[in-house]
Structure to design on (210 residues):
C-alpha cells in the first residue's frame, strides 16, 4: 500500500491493542465509502484532545472490474487496521438521493468496509451525512468545503487533504467521538470553551452564500 501523505508518528502498540481492557486513549477509524474513491482517516482521542494518526484515499481505476475495486478497498483497510489498531469503526450511511446504480455500487463499498471491521473484531457505528456535518460544523447542511475547513482546524493539520473523501472520513471519525462522549471536556464558562476551540467562532462560507 502506498504510504499516506497525512500521518503522525507510527503507532508502536501491540497487535491486540484494540482488544485491551483499557481503551484510553481511543483510536477511531472513519470511512467515507465509494467504489472509485474511498476515504479513510484514523484519529486518536485522549483526555478531550484529538490528533491525526493516518489519513488517505483508496483510489480505484474505473477501468477495473467492480470485484477488483472492492478487493483493493478490502486489502487497504485491512492494512490500515493492522497498522493503527483502531478501537472503533465509524462509517457514513448511504445517500439515497443517488440513482439506483450508484446507490448499489456504494452499498458494495460500504459492505466491504464494514466486513473488514467485523473481521477485525472492531465495534462499528453508522452516521448519516447530516449527522456528520452537524457534529463537525454545527450545520447539517454544510458544504464539503466547510467540513474540510473545520476538520483541518480541529485536527490542526498543516496540509489540506487532496480529496474531500479523506476529509469526510475524518469528519465521520470526529462525529463518532462527539456522539460517544469520549471527547468531552468540562468548561466553567464560554471564554474557556472558545479558548480551547477557537474554530467554533466561525468558518468560511461557500461563494454561493457570500
Amino acid at each position: 500500500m502506498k504510504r499516506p501523505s497525512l500521518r503522525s508518528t507510527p503507532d508502536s502498540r501491540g497487535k491486540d491493542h484494540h482488544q485491551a481492557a483499557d481503551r484510553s486513549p481511543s483510536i477511531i477509524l472513519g470511512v467515507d465509502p465509494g467504489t472509485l474513491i474511498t476515504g479513510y482517516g484514523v484519529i486518536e482521542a485522549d483526555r478531550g484532545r484529538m490528533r491525526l494518526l493516518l489519513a488517505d484515499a483508496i483510489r480505484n481505476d474505473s477501468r477495473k472490474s467492480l470485484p477488483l475495486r472492492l478487493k483493493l478497498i478490502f486489502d487497504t483497510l485491512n492494512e490500515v487496521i493492522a497498522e493503527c489498531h483502531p478501537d472503533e469503526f465509524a462509517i457514513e450511511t448511504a445517500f439515497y438521493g443517488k440513482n439506483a446504480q450508484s446507490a448499489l455500487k456504494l452499498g458494495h463499498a460500504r459492505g466491504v468496509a464494514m466486513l473488514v471491521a467485523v473481521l477485525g473484531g472492531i465495534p462499528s457505528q453508522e452516521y448519516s451525512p447530516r449527522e456528520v456535518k452537524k457534529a463537525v460544523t454545527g450545520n447539517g447542511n454544510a458544504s464539503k468545503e466547510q467540513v474540510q475547513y473545520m476538520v483541518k482546524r480541529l485536527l490542526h493539520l498543516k496540509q489540506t487533504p487532496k480529496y474531500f473523501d479523506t476529509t469526510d472520513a475524518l469528519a465521520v471519525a470526529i462525529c463518532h467521538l462527539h456522539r460517544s462522549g469520549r471527547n468531552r471536556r468540562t468548561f466553567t464558562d464560554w471564554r474557556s470553551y472558545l479558548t480551547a476551540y477557537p474554530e467554533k467562532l466561525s468558518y468560511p462560507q461557500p461563494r454561493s452564500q457570500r
